[in-house]
Amino acid sequence: MRTARTALGWAVGATVGAFLATAIAVVSLLAAGAGSADDDFSYDPLRSEVVGLPDGSALSGDRLERPLIELLRSYGDEDVDVSCPDTAAVTVSTAVVCSGEIERSSWTGIVFFEDAKGTFVVVEV
How far is CA 103 from CA 62, 80, 99, in A? Predict the structure, then answer.
């Protein structure tokens, strides 16, 4: 008789566990769906270029800032104040961290050069 009670206990426990796991999964999916509907930020990288940059040359911060500021303004940001450090040589995968303020909010972006001629992509962090 003791075996029957143990098996029944295991069956009840497994049923309760399965129900709880299902309930947690449903709540998690609903919470994730609700969070993404409220998220109005775009995470697409921004692309532009530094015009007339010789292959592999040094790049001053202010020369990078101009096309970066123009790029950010083209997306509707009017109040843009960004500064970038000087770069010793621009090659494929050179990364430059620029920071500043956009619309009175702190902004940091990583500029990745896609080639040695100045084509870059900016990822906001």
Answer: 20, 6, 13
E strands within the chain?
A: 46-49, 80-83, 95-102, 105-113, 119-124
Per DSSP, 21 falls in state: H
pLDDT tens-digit readout, 63-114:
999 999 999 999 888 899 999 999 999 998 899 999 999 999 999 999 999 9
Query: CB of 111 within 8 A of CB of 120?
Result: yes
Domain boundaries, the chain: 1-40, 46-124
Q: Is the pTM of this model over 0.90?
A: no
CB-based contacts of 94, cutoff 8 Å, min separation 6: 87, 112, 113
**CB of 90 within 8 A of CB of 63?**
no
